[in-house]
Amino acid sequence: MSRIPIKMQAFSILNIASVAGLILKLQQPSGDIPWHEDGKTDPWDLVESVMGLNIAGYHTEARRALGWLRQHQNPDGSWFSSYVNGIPEDRTCQTHMACYVAVGLFHAYLVTKDRSWLEDFWDTMEKGIEYALELQVATGEIYWARSPEGNIDAMSLLAGSSSVFMSLKCALGISRILGRARPAWEDAWGRLGRSLRENLHSYNVSKSRFSMYWFYPVLCGAIQGDKARARVEKYWHKYMIDGQGARCVSDQPWVTIAETCELVLTLHAMGSREKARIVFSWIQDRLYEDKTFWCGYTYPDMVIWPEEKISWTNAVALMAADALYDLTPGAGLFCHDRWQGSVFKGI
User: Fold this and answer.
1) Beta pairing partners, 249
2) With contact defined as beta carbons under 8 Å apart, do 143 and 153 qualify?
3) Domain 6-344, CATH 1.50.10.10 — does that match?
4) Which of 27, 102, 130, 339 is 20 to 30 Å apart from 168, CA to CA?
5) Strand, helix or coil at 162?
């Protein structure tokens, strides 16, 4: 097992050894990282756990998790939506799950500067990207999934398409590093970005109760500058409980640690870094005795729900801490000012 760097051991905002230790404890010999003990695995959240492990210095274990992902990829480049002990549970194949591996790979390269990550998993990433782009329409939106019967669900989700936007951006960064030009990806990324900025009416509004609908277009970098600040400010009180964190959904008093940490990443990405630190400070005592984070809690009665200790919740807490306190060279992954179009500065 890899050792956590001394810089990590000295970090006092959260106990990185405990937080990363939970992810390691949940990892199976196969490399699989389920949500919690006896829980399911989904490909998107597994990549979140990979990024958490790489931040904490557990590169061997992170690579093993990606190996599990590669082994379970479908021939068309997709993954099933969830697995239990490696057996498909939900055979829906979602576009954002198919291509998020690109974000994990680009992050691994930023942290380690090791090109072998990109070379070893290029084929896996390329197939995932191509699967997602097969479901892109002319106006740029990405349909969200194919059903277990193989039928395309002609609905675009704002959070899902925002995730695809970030994945394409990272995939293009990887293609440049490896000298493998993909102009079709560049075109698809540009059309998707225009849609996220100009065609929000094309996305399924029934999902707008989820806070991801609010901030994901900003987190991924599709919406930046004054428009990003206006969007965050306009809906702040719809999705936030000041002094507590982000609601998972706007109509319930349920604060979730993962969404709060993703909002921290969003605020930091758009340049509101002091506000990001303040929001992150609100959740620093939302911990079990072993110093791992709750998944969420109700407010004001402060009931922890659900009670399981979640791998990806703790992974995104590591990502937020990295962004705020520059723990690794991957800290700027989401920062708008580190990207010039689809080119990441400094690599």
Assistant:
1) 210
2) yes
3) yes
4) 27
5) helix
Nearest to 334, CA basis, from 97, 147, 165:
165
Express each pLDDT in 229-268 by its tens digit: 999 999 999 999 999 999 999 999 999 999 999 999 999 9
CB of 207 within 8 A of CB of 158? yes
Torsion of CA 45, 47, 52, 53, to 10 degrees: 120
| pLDDT at residue 11, rounded to an integer | 55
Rounded-to-integer distance, Cα 331 and Cα 321, Å:
9
Q: Tell me the per-residue pLDDT of 144-186, one tens digit each, with 9 for 90 and over.
A: 999 999 999 999 999 999 999 999 999 999 999 999 999 999 9
Is residue 260 within 8 Å of residue 317, measured between CB atoms? no
Do 328 and 262 meet the contact criterion of CB atoms below 8 Å apart?
no
Question: Residue 189 is which amino acid?
Answer: W
Supply 32's token pair: 């699989």
pLDDT higher than 50, residue 8: no
Distance separating alpha carbons of residues 127 and 110, to the nearest angstrom: 22
**Taking the CB of residue 73, how many other CB atoms lie within 10 A of it?**
20
Model's pTM, two decimal places?
0.96
Residue in 96, 20, 11 with CA at minimum distance from that of residue 60: 20
What is the amino acid identity at position 112?
A: T
Angle, nearest 10°, between helix axes 16-26 and 311-325? 150
Instruction: Write the CA distances from 241 to 153, 228, 260, 283, 326, integer angstroms.
Output: 34, 20, 10, 12, 27
∠ Cα 142 148 149 (to 5°): 100
Burial tier of 212 (Cβ tally within 10 Å: 0-12, 13-18, 19+): buried
Locus of tokens 């390329």: 126
Alpha helices in 88-137 (DSSP H): 95-99, 101-112, 116-134
